[in-house]
Amino acid sequence: MIKKTKKGPLIFPVLILFGFLNLTGNDLYAGESTPEHRFGKEYLHHLFSDSIRVYSSPMKWDKEDYLRFSVVTGTGLFLLVLDESLYESVQRNKTQASDEVFSYVTDLGHGAFLGGVSTLLYTAGEISRNDDLRKIGLYSLQSWLTAGLLVTGTKIFVGRTRPYGEQGAHSFRPFDFSSKNHSFPSGHAASAFAVAAVISEYSGMFVDIFCYSLAAGVAFSRVHLDKHWMSDVFVGSVLGYFIGKKVCDLNDQRDRNRIQVNFDFNKEYSGITLSFSF
Predict the structure, then answer these.
(1) 10 Å Cβ neighbour count for 111?
(2) Does CATH place domain 11-276 in 2.60.40?
(3) What is the Cα–Cα distance from 243 to 67, expressed in whole angstroms?
């Protein structure tokens, strides 16, 4: 049995991530945009309404969406069959060094870290008056919360036993509230990919690679640390990714359809400009 080491504070990966984003190109920091994105009553209203729209989106799927769903379902079932052998392979090849590394990596999918990243990005946007940063911070938080609620409900409904429960990969106890029976899907993987999908939506290629690499590391760490089966982290990752993309799409569509009113007063003339984007 590999001995666990004490984990360090989460502030270090937060600072590393923010420092990396701060060094990226112009795609992420495109300057002030309208309308401004602020945390307030309107945001909280959309947080609730958009969550309902995300959860009900399968009702509006087209053939392409059902094809994607079929591919994901097929891959998930394939992994389900191989779960025990894949898990045993990972456990056989783990070392004390890898255990220490992944004990840190897994924290990147924890709510405290992801909430901190979202808050940090939004705060940086407020300080620098950069609406793009505010937007990424708000959308990341929204995506994380939306994914978290769906995953929590699914965990309770499915009731799959975690690897450390020692009941095998095909043990299910629906509507059991014990944490050891909340294996499917992986909440850490879903949360990490939900936030990564939002950040990558408004950034360049290098940030995309960085964020998705971290998210993939989080997903693998859950298997490595005896918390999940491979199919758990696969489904969790896919859920997080598509939720993140859907949240961005809903918000961008709202921005495009927003009416903007501009007032212009000077010595020569005064006027009001009304614009509607669609």
Answers:
(1) 13
(2) no
(3) 17
Query: Which two three-digit tokens encode residue 128?
Result: 């620098």
Q: If you search the block for the tokens 């070392």, which residue do you land on?
A: 95
Q: Contact at 8 Å (CB) between 262 and 272?
A: yes
Residues 6+ apart with CB under 8 A from 140: 114, 117, 118, 121, 194, 195, 198, 199
Containing 124, the helix (H) or strand (E) segment is: helix 111-128
* Residues 145-174 pLDDT 10s: 999 999 999 999 999 999 999 999 999 999
Report pTM. 0.83
DSSP, collapsed to helix, strand or coil, labels residue 274 as: strand
DSSP 8-class letter at 273: E
Report which of 11, 39, 53 is spatially closest to residue 136, judged by C-alpha positions.
39
Long-range contact pairs involving 89-98 (C-beta distance under 8 Å, separation at least 24): 90/223, 90/224, 91/226, 94/2, 94/224, 95/2, 96/2, 96/3, 98/224
Residue-wise pLDDT tens digits, 15-37: 445 554 544 443 444 444 445 78
Q: How many CA atoms lie within 13 Å of 168's alpha carbon, on the beta-carbon side? A: 4
Q: How far is Cα 187 from Cα 73, in angstroms, rounded to an integer?
A: 18
Q: Are 3 and 104 in contact (CB under 8 A)?
A: no
Provide the pLDDT for residue 258: 65
Rounded Cα–Cα distance for residues 29 and 249 (Å): 19
Neighbouring-strand partners of residue 273: 262
Answer whether 209's CB lies under 8 Å from 83's CB: no
Helix, coil or strand: residue 6: coil
Residue entry with tokens 């004990």: 103
11-20, 50-59, 74-83, 214-223, range with the lowest pLDDT: 11-20
Task: Please give the mean pLDDT across all residues of the chain.
Answer: 84
